[in-house]
Specification:
This protein is of the alpha/beta class. It contains 14 helices and 11 strands. The longest helix is centred in the middle third of the chain and has 21 residues. The structure holds nicotinamide-adenine-dinucleotide (NAD) and zinc ion (ZN).
Length: 371
């Protein structure tokens, strides 16, 4: 089975040499998962998935492991963000204890960002850390959440408040799994793809403009290219700033300060994450234009690309605006966002297609007017 491979290399630590892993992208590659896990020394595996991907995807992973001589159990959680919880993590820890899992057991996360973040966190914490693999089955997970080692769960007080940096042993992005993904979820993932073009890669942005038709029809060659390029760009950022310390990794938050505020205001569940990011990028581009960092041409190009990929630019594009709170309420939510620093507003803003900068101290009055 042919596939593309991206190697992600992380710096040496005091106690270990360089760490690295492969991100494999291709069609039908779940069949190769078992061999890779076997070569990594596993004798046993536990698959953690959500109940919507148990059939056919977690089962396919299980068969691949079995064919390589690895016994695997499947533990599933309810689909949806609410499974990224303390109680689900606790349930999984206890299930692993009941299965008498030891350090020669590897965890396999099969699913979207929810399954990956939760399973990764459980792997990071059980028995002080079990090796784990990511088998992302949503576009969001293939281009973003499965790469880079951020794992975590939510608290009532906020999303992703408890977590760990815990890198996978490898990532198997099998684009065939996307065949069962609903259109709305697929398009939501495209928002993160557009984000990579805006923040890092003008040529990729232009490619997306030229291939929007094939992308929406999920032409396999187009999907492989966009997953590969996105994964490559995310991997390069993570390599430079694994633990979000230098500010580089923060550029991945383009559109997310506004996006998280829209998500929170809408109540989790009304907007998909990528839809919120599309609205957020639309607002961020207008903010950048307002303060003279970019021209109207940038805004028009980004708007046109988002639109041609079936993404919303405004709440009205999603049908109803009744959930949209007044500007002050949105500003208050942004003030609480853990990415804001000491009350003043910080945004990732573009200077041109393919380049963004972190901008501190934005006047809240300008933001209020935009909202
Ligand atoms: N760790 C990171 O770096 C990172 C980055 C971005 C997002 N995230 C997290 O990822 C989550 C969002 O991820 P998501 O959009 O993948 O959501 P998700 O995991 O909830 O998946 C979306 C929906 O699609 C279903 N699904 C998954 N794969 C499917 C398939 N192949 N066919 C049919 N249905 C399928 C799921 O059951 C779910 O209902 C959020 O919790 C977010 O915080 C994490
Ligand atoms: Zn995102």
């Amino acid at each position: 089975m042919s596939h593309r491979t991206i190697r992600l290399r992380l710096g040496a630590t005091a106690t270990a040499g360089e760490r690295s892993y492969s991100i494999l992208i291709g069609s039908g590659i779940i069949a190769e998962l078992g061999n890779a896990v076997r070569q990594d020394g596993a004798v046993r595996a536990v698959i953690i998935c959500d109940d919507r991907v148990r059939e056919p995807h977690a089962s396919a992973a299980c068969r691949s492991l079995a064919a390589a001589g690895i016994g695997a159990e499947i533990l599933s959680v309810a689909a949806g963000e609410s499974s990224k919880s303390v109680s689900e993590a606790g349930r999984l820890w206890n299930a692993l204890a009941t299965l008498a899992v030891d350090r020669r057991t590897q965890i396999i996360a099969v699913g979207g960002g929810v399954a990956g973040d939760l399973a990764g966190f459980v792997a990071a914490t059980f028995a002080r850390g079990l090796p784990f693999w990511q088998v992302p089955t949503t576009l969001v997970a293939q281009v973003d959440s499965a790469i880079g080692g951020k794992t975590g769960i939510n608290l009532d007080a906020g999303k992703n408040l408890v977590g760990a940096f815990w890198q996978p042993r490898g990532v198997f992005a099998d684009i065939d799994t996307l065949a069962t993904l609903p259109d709305r979820e697929y398009r939501s993932g495209l928002a993160e793809v557009v984000k990579y073009g805006v923040i890092l890669d003008a040529e990729f942005f232009a490619w997306l403009e030229q291939h929007a038709g094939e992308i929406l029809l999920r032409d396999p060659a187009a999907v492989i290219h966009l997953v590969e390029r996105s994964a490559f760009l995310k991997a390069r950022v993570v390599e430079e700033d694994e633990h979000e310390q230098t500010g580089l990794r923060a550029i991945l938050n383009y559109g997310h300060t506004f996006g998280h505020a829209y998500e929170a205001a809408a109540g989790y569940g009304r907007l998909l994450h990528g839809e919120a990011v599309a609205l957020g990028m639309t607002t961020a581009a207008r903010l950048a234009a307002d303060i003279g960092r970019i021209d109207a041409g940038f805004v028009a190009r980004q708007d046109a690309l988002l639109r041609s990929l079936g993404l919303p630019l405004t709440a009205a594009d999603l049908g109803t605006t009744e959930w949209m709170p007044p500007a002050d309420a949105l500003l208050a939510i942004m003030g609480r966002d853990k990415k804001s620093i000491g009350g003043s507003l910080r945004f990732v803003l573009p200077t041109r297609i393919g380049h963004v900068e972190l901008v501190d101290g934005i006047d809240p009055a300008i933001v209020r007017r935009l909202l």
